[in-house]
Amino acid sequence: MQFIDLALIHIRSGTGGSGCTSFRREKFIEFGGPDGGDGGKGGDVIVKAISNLNTLVDFKYKRHYFAKNGRPGMGQNKTGAAGDDITINVPVGTEVLLENKKTVLVDLVDDGQRYVIAEGGNGGWGNSRFKSSTNQAPRQSNNGHSGSELTLWLRLKLLADVGLVGLPNVGKSSLLSVMSNAKPKIGNFSFTTLTPNLGLVSHKQRDFILADIPGVIEGANLGKGIGIQFLGHIERCKVLVHVLDISSNNILADFETTLKELSDYKSDLVPKIKCVVLNKLDIIKGYRLDKIIETFSQRGIMVLPVSTFSRIGIDKLKDQLLELLEENNIAEEMSAGRTVKWSPV
User: Fold this and answer.
1) In this predicted structure, what is the pLDDT of residue 10?
2) Quick one: average pLDDT of 154-158?
3) How far is it, in rounded angstroms, from Cα 172 to Cα 277?
4) Which of 186, 194, 222, 341 is the most exposed place for a label (fewest CB within 10 A)?
5) Which has the higher per-residue pLDDT, 32 or 46?
6) Domain annotation for the chain: domains and CATH numbers
7) What residues are paired with 10 via a beta bridge?
8) Burial code of 192-202, b = ≥16 C-beta within 10 A, e = fewer?
9) pLDDT over 90 percentage in the chain
């Protein structure tokens, strides 16, 4: 299925039905009085997050969503039927923005979460509403209120616990494939991954979601390579893992390049990088590995050498990620003022 994370749609809520001008007509009743009913309310436009969607591709083919109008009122004080609402189903993690792409109306992060984007117009009053002691036979009724019409952007940001970041061709997709149930495209060339991939990691009776995004090159925040098109998908990650190719001629420069691009895109992403994974462990000699680890350790950076080919260090990496996620959950609970639940060691 084609992955699309940005879509433009046009919506319109329903117009309320018109009120009715009517008078009671019954045999032997000379002055029946007004009995015009109110018009029905127009339908709402509702957006709903559902978990079995993971792309906005449906909105590539259908971009207009109109709710039904309310029906007009009728005699005998009958209110017109309300217009049917229209519900737009989107993936969990979708933001709804105004046409300027800056104002966020709602961020749908929970399965089943609903939000009324545009309310339908109220129905008009029938003439029975205007009856008074001085006007026993009003011939006045109201038209229904118009619905709202908007052009909106839908922007999907994937929900994942851990995100893999790094330059192209460092082995992020290979790491995702050996750690999770995902089957991403893998190749020995840059930008094999053109869209984000998600995988479920199951380890020690615990699960977490791992995300792999396309590689970030120098100047990505200015639009080079794939640019910053997919960096939004790691904003929601609790923990980021920086993947490096251990065989690189200048591994520190690679590390600094990714940090700079993330910082230029959004400054609060860099503190989420909790560890560095040195991939392709098989193709480096031991003395050079020790030197690289020492260099990062002097900076206070946690380093985990792994090999996706021989599976060396993969279980240790999973253990470490579980610990980091647990630490993150505890920090979030404490910052929210909640007491951390006790559990035996």
Assistant:
1) 97
2) 87
3) 10
4) 341
5) 46
6) 6-156 (2.70.210.12), 162-335 (3.40.50.300)
7) 64, 151
8) bbebbbbbebe
9) 35
